[in-house]
Every structure is written in C-alpha cells, then in structure tokens.
Write a structure and sequence with these properties.
With about 375 residues, this protein is mainly β. It has 4 helices and 22 strands. Strands 1, 2, 3, 4, 5, 6, 7, 8, 9, 10, 11 and 12 form a 12-stranded antiparallel beta sheet that branches. Strands 13, 14, 15, 16, 17, 18, 19, 20, 21 and 22 form a 10-stranded antiparallel beta sheet that branches.
Length: about 375
C-alpha cells in the first residue's frame, strides 16, 4: 500500500481530484494507438538516424511504440527519488508524453506526482536531449545533466555529473527494442523543497536508464528486476528480464573507477516467499546469481513504495485499460553480496545495501492457478490483487 504524504483535508481533496484526472489521462495514453507517428523518422547526428548523444530521444515509430527514461536517486540524508518519463504512440493519437514519480522521505513518507500531455503540449529540444513534460524537465544535453521539478508540492533541482557514452545492454536489445545505462550510481547534487518546508541541499548517487520498444512492452517483458550496488569506487548493475514465454535473460555490468570491468551474462534465481508466490505480482525475497566471474545473493527488504499507477481510476476505466496494461512496480533498499572471482587486481567481495526495482508489465502466469481475483470492494483483503 502506498504511504501518502501528510496534507490538509482541503488540499488533499483538491489534489485527489487533480490526480484522478491526470491518472485518467495516463491511462488513455496506453490504449490502442493510431497510425502516423508524430515524431519524424530518425534523429539528426548520424547517417542511420540513431541519436548522436546517448539518451537522446529516438522517437517511437510504430503504432504501439514507446520510449522511457528512468531515474533513481538515493541521497546521503536518506531520501529516495524515482521518476519515469515516457513518450508513446500508445494512446489517443501519437507522440504523447507522461511522467510518474515518487519522492520518498527518510521517514518513509511518500509523495507521488505524475502528469500527462498530448502531442503538441510538451516540448523536445531540437537535439532531442531535453524533454519538458508539464512541470518537469530532464535535460541530457549538457556536461551536467539536470532534472528539474517545479510542482506546487515539490520543487527539485538535481545535477548529475559525468556524461559518458551510454552502455548498451546487448541481450536487452533487438530489432524493435533496446536498453542502455546512461548513469550508474553517478554523483548527484541539488536542492529540494516540499510544500510548507525549507529548501534542503541534496547529495547522493543516481542511476539513469533509457529504453525503447516498438510494440506494447508486455509483449516483450513480463517482469524486470534491477539492482544497483556500490562499494567504494565499484558500481554494479544487475538486470533480469522474463519474457511472456517464461524465458529469462540476465546481465551484470560492473564499473571500477569509471571503467567497465565486467559485462557478462549471468543466471538469476528469484526465490519467492510462500505468501508472495501465490499472487499475480509476486516480489522475490531473495535473488541468487551466478556468472562466469561472479556470484552473489540479494536479500530484498520490504518495499519503500509499491504501486499501481492506475489504481485510482474508476472501475469502468480500469476494465478498459486492463487488457492493455497491468503494471506494478516496487522499489526497495536491499542487502547484497557480490563476489568477483575473475578481476584485474584479484578477487573482490562487495557487501552493502543496494537499490532494487521489480516491475511487472503483466500478471505472472501463476495467477491463473491461484484463483485470485481483483475486485473493487476488497481493499485491505489478503485475497485481493496488490
């Protein structure tokens, strides 16, 4: 269950109405799209139309194509920020854009924010490196990449250092989809101010990924798990993607002093708790990984935030959206152990607390055998879908 920030009754009612309207717009963006992409084919910079700068918008071309940027930042004072931006042709018309974000205070209080804009009501720079969607902007065009939020309840400015070439995750890339890491536990600094609060300085680390698909993402990925783990100058990124067929693909990327030391396939076993295993969107309690030069274990803690972006929609709208998108996401800080056996300089053991994201784009097949049902009147019941 999402823990919501503390607000006055009057403001909460107004924000609830506005949030419901925005969520409805978000849902409509995901319905069956129309042809004729709003963004032109190709991007200035390279002969084959690929973006000249890592992270630059490619522009979804297919009727059901979409493109995403996901930023997750952890700060030294205990706060966490997760934001996903999207350009999509899935919806009423093409070239729509949406934002879903969560600011999590050190005490666990969660402030959710979102927005959706139709084609022509959001902006993309000529170089396709700055997206501005409502009151949020992601700028990847300068040496210091920036995220800006100027909402009433959240004002935020962040600068990410280091702008290396994007690191493509080969197995997650195909003719109609791709995945790249634009920043991995990169130093980040800035300021935040919540409604009624003081302006606070922020320092921490941020990870930024960029992915694109030219069809509904649930047709490619059923579930994706990501881990960001750091210790000293070593940064590791683990990704596992499970296809609707049940086939699993996993990859581990490690950097040391900014240089890639490992980029290899691994096997990942997701161990579910007895309670979670029977649900449609189960969260692992542990991940066991083994690769040519690494082995490890991740113990997942309870989620800091676990949400369905469409949960507040009216029942009728949810019924219409459900066949196209059953999206669940959770974020947690989790203990990890990674042992690198084959490494320049000798073996290395990493221990610490990493950041884990588990995202479902459709319910797990096990749901069909459990008899679980999602009902409108079952809030708080263990028999209901999360």
């Amino acid at each position: 269950m999402i823990r919501r920030g503390r607000r006055s009754t009057r403001r909460a009612a107004g924000h609830a109405r506005g949030r419901a309207a925005r969520l409805l717009a978000l849902a409509l963006l995901w319905l069956a799209g129309l042809p004729a992409p709003a963004l032109a084919q190709g991007t200035p910079g390279e002969p084959d139309g690929r973006p000249a700068r890592p992270g630059a918008a490619r522009g979804p071309q297919a009727e059901l194509g979409s493109e995403f940027w996901t930023l997750a930042a952890r700060f030294e004072t205990g706060e966490l920020l997760v934001v996903e931006l999207c350009i999509t042709n899935v919806g009423l018309g093409d070239g729509n854009a949406a934002v879903i974000g969560h600011w999590i205070e050190a005490d666990g209080t969660v402030l959710a924010f979102d927005g959706a804009k139709a084609s022509g009501r959001w902006t993309l720079s000529e170089e396709r490196t700055r997206l501005e969607i409502g009151k949020l902007a992601l700028d990847l065009g300068g040496e210091q990449r920036r995220l800006l939020v100027w909402k009433e309840r959240l004002q935020l400015e962040l600068e990410l250092g280091e702008a290396p070439a994007g690191i493509a995750i080969g197995p997650m890339t195909g003719a109609d989809h791709g995945f790249e890491v634009l920043a991995l536990a990169t130093p980040v600094a800035g300021h935040v101010q919540l409604e009624g609060g003081e302006r606070r300085a922020l320092r921490g680390q941020a990870t930024l990924t960029h992915r694109w698909v030219e069809r509904i993402e649930s047709r490619i990925t059923l579930r994706r798990i990501e881990l960001v783990a750091t210790q000293g100058d070593v940064r590791a990124y683990l990704i596992q993607a499970v296809a609707p067929s049940g086939e699993s693909t996993s990859w581990l990327l490690a950097l040391e002093n900014g240089r890639i030391t490992h980029s290899e396939p691994v096997t990942v076993e997701a161990r579910m708790s007895a309670v979670e295993a029977s649900g449609p969107f189960p969260l692992p309690e542990a991940l066991i990984l083994e690769g040519p030069s690494v082995r490890g274990r991740i113990e997942l803690a309870d989620p800091l935030v676990r949400y369905d972006p469409l949960r507040d929609l009216p029942a009728l709208v949810r019924l219409v959206v459900a066949p196209f998108l059953r999206w669940r996401s959770s974020w947690s800080t989790s203990l990890f152990e990674l042992d690198f056996r084959d490494r320049p300089g000798g073996p290395l053991s990493l221990r610490g607390q990493g950041l884990v994201n588990v995202t479902y784009f459709d319910a797990a097949p096990v749901a069909a055998t459990t008899g679980a049902e999602c009902r409108d009147d079952c809030a708080g019941s263990a028999d209901c879908c999360p």
